[in-house]
Amino acid sequence: MVRVRVKGDIAIDDIQLMPGVCAGGDIAIDEYTTNAGVCAGGMLIIVVRVRRYAIDEIQLMPGVCAGVSPCDNSPCLNGASCSETTTAIGYTCSCLGGFIGQNCAVDAKTVSEFTCGFETENNCVFENVDDDDFQWTYRSGSTTSGGTGPSSAYEGTQYVYTEASSPNFQGDTAVLSTVNTLLAGTSSYCLQFYLHMYGIPGTMEVKFGNRGSSSSSVWSESNDQGNQWVFHQVELPPSFTDPVIFFEATRGSSYKGDVALDLVKLSLGQCASGPSARATNPCNNGGSCNENGSAAGYYCSCMTGWSGDNCDVQDVSGNSYSCGFETDGAPCIFKDTTNDEFDWTRRTKSTPSSSTGPSSAATGDYYMYIETSSPRVIGDTAVLTTQDTNLPAGSWCLTFQYHMKGSSMGSLSVFAGDRSSSLTSIWTKSGEQVDPDLWKTATIDIPQQSNPVIMIDGIRGSSYRGDIAIDDIALNAGTCASAGK
């Protein structure tokens, strides 16, 4: 239909076109065309011309018609030359330097190494492609859905991610590609990146191949990696003359499947056998790693609320803390350390060995104890410590219930001091403690410190009959009303 635009309001309604013969006429509407015109005064005239035609034996074959060259339409751009081929499109373009693509339409940049931090949009060799289902999106802060996605970039303020919420569905893909970049060199490449896959993710793949050819998956991940940025490196083989790299994220079964990327780096050569301190990111709880010339080789910039060399010390501001051990995994400022021989164990009712340990908790159902059976030997130590908590400066009162029944009992000790110096023993009990009550109360003053740390050590005695238990730990700011009991 030819549409003619004129000034003035025109309206038509209830146009009907039906096959067959019109009532009172003999015209069969098998094939028709329309035309339109405008008369003086703005009246619209629609003319329908009806003819009878028939067609048969339509054939569509690959290639080009005899006597017609696909190069006649000049499909090759930017000075490229066109040559006929027997391929489906019937031609190939020989691009001039700096241009790539099927029709030499892309003005490509050439790189051998690069880093994408995604701090500035459209400034990375990895770009969204047009023939996928949805797009990677630049983002700062949290993603829009709870229970998935990062709360911040790994480094800087921005990252890219795939949003798994509606209207995206399971199986939809979002692709980043270097298709508009010429990767120089024919050696191996090392691709490094930080990936965040938290919630119910789908699949993340790295694909590699020659431009214009199919690509192959060289790396994939489809598991929940926790609410953290995880470093990955992938070695890309030197088997391609014009390589293209793809990041392909496939949406999983839930909207809680946001996938995020940050700090993508490509370098010539093989990947190192072990990543650097920056690559392994020793900084915990969202801290960022910065390389320097120190003995450790790095320092951490911690998120608010965390401190310590590796951002593993939580800053707190309260004046009262308690640990009753009734709920497994419940927050407690006293935690097992990794610098001892064995661990304290959460337990209900009796311990496994006879003639040692309590038959029940001091209060409630659960307590903590040290199991002194084999493979434990005399002198082995299990430590609970507040070293992962940055307690406010000042003096503190520590109280807890303890149980030391057994003929081969070791000792229970409390150490305290400043985080920057060695700790001092301030309370200890050795041997069996059964008179007058099996569960006893310890009340201990913790001397004033600017950055206090407290440790509770359970030390194994001469045999398996030396289980030590503790319960109802409480730590309160200030001094105890009756210290030393």
UniProtKB/TrEMBL annotation:
GO CC list: membrane
MAM domain mapped to chain residues: 114-273, 321-482
Assigned keywords, A-Z: Disulfide bond, EGF-like domain
SMART domains the record matches: EGF, MAM
Entry keyword Disulfide bond: yes
Ranges of residues in domain EGF-like: 67-105, 267-312
Cross-referenced Gene3D superfamilies: 2.60.120.200, Laminin
Covalent S-S links between cysteines: C76-C93, C95-C104, C283-C300, C302-C311
Classification via SUPFAM superfamilies: Concanavalin A-like lectins/glucanases, EGF/Laminin
Any Pfam family: MAM
Protein's UniProt name: Uncharacterized protein
